[in-house]
Design a protein that fits this description.
Elements (H helix, E strand, L loop, with lengths): L4 H4 L12 H11 L5 H9 L3 E4 L3 H7 L6 E2 L5 H5 L17 E4 L5 H11 L6 E2 L3 H7 L21 H4 L2
Parallel strand pairs: 1-2, 1-3, 3-4
Length: 162
């Protein structure tokens, strides 16, 4: 039987003042007025911006919210900070209602809190993420097949088995 590293080794003693991810997530969510999928859909229809922070492969595999803006997590703050030279055209007002969506509603909470730190006080996320959106039967597109990169070597029968 294979044991994971976490079960074989004791957890290290955390440095003083550090917080675990569960604490960080709880603190982020305490600041947010989180929306269930139906509330998020209504807010979108009333003019809120739904921002999908999932990687392209995840959006392709699971689908997307029609009309959402795809901004991957690694550039989110730069794209939405009204002070940033790399901001999106939509990011001109601190009163912008931004609803972040990820696959299951965890990373989106951290991302929405980061936008609030920038001053976007109406930033929030979707409880349960895109998975809950799909389960609620709300409009969705996809999944779609990813196109292979023109730089990737072709997959042959012998390579596919490795």
């Amino acid at each position: 039987m294979h044991q994971s590293r976490a079960t074989r080794c004791p957890a290290p003693v955390p440095p003083p003042g550090s917080r675990g991810i569960d604490e960080i997530l709880a603190a982020a969510r305490a600041r947010l007025d989180r929306l269930d999928p139906e509330q998020a859909h209504l807010a979108y229809r009333a003019g809120a911006l739904v921002v999908d922070i999932r990687p392209a492969a995840q959006r392709a595999a699971h689908g997307t919210v029609p009309g959402s803006l795809a901004v991957e997590r690694n550039v989110l703050e730069w794209r939405f900070d009204p002070r940033s030279s790399a901001r999106l055209p939509q990011a001109v007002d601190y009163d912008l209602q931004v609803i972040i969506i990820c696959q299951e509603g965890y990373t989106s909470s951290l991302a929405a809190a980061a936008l609030q730190d920038l001053g976007l006080h109406r930033a929030t996320d979707v409880v349960g993420g895109f998975a809950a959106w799909r389960i609620a039967g709300l409009p969705a597109l996809g999944p779609t097949a990813l196109r292979p990169s023109p730089l990737a070597p072709p997959v042959t029968a012998d390579r596919a088995l490795r």
